[in-house]
Amino acid sequence: MLEVKEELVVECSIEKALNIIGGKWSFLILKQLFEGTKRFGEIQKSIPKISPKALTDTLRHLEENEVVNRKVTPTVPVTVEYSLTEKGQALHKILKEMKIWGSQWA
C-alpha cells in the first residue's frame, strides 16, 4: 500500500505582509494617505512618475486587501476619495522604521 505524504506549507508572515502591501507604488501611495484623505488626482500629482493605470491598479489592490477605503460621492463629476483603514494606519510605524533604516543604510 502506498503512503501519500501531505506537504506541509508554512507561510512566512513577512511574505504575507508584503503580498498585502503590494508593489513598488504602494509605499508612495501609503505615504500620501498617512497625511489624510486624498482624491485620485491629488495622489497622482504627488507621485509624478506613476501612470494612471499603475495608480488605479495599486489602489484596487490596497482596497481588496482592506488597507485603503474608497468612498464614492455621487456628484457631477463623481467624487472618489481614498483613506486608510485601521489596518492601513497600522503600517505607519513600520514604514517609518523602514524610512529610518533606508536613510541609514542605503
Q: Tell me the overall shape.
A: globular
* Tally of helical runs: 6
- The residue ranges in which pLDDT falls below 50 over 5 or more consecutive positions are none
From the N-terminal CA to the C-terminal CA, the straight-line distance is 57 Å
Q: What is the residue-mean pLDDT, rounded to a whole number?
A: 91
Listing every helix as H and every strand as E from the N terminus to the C terminus, the arrangement reads HHEHHEEHH
- Provide the β-strand percentage band: 5-15%
Look at the helices and sheets and give the structural class.
alpha+beta
The helical percent reads: 55-70%
| Biggest pleated-sheet summary | 3 strands, antiparallel
**Largest sheet, spatial ordering of strands:** 1-3-2
Radius of gyration: 18 Å
Secondary structure tally: strands: 3
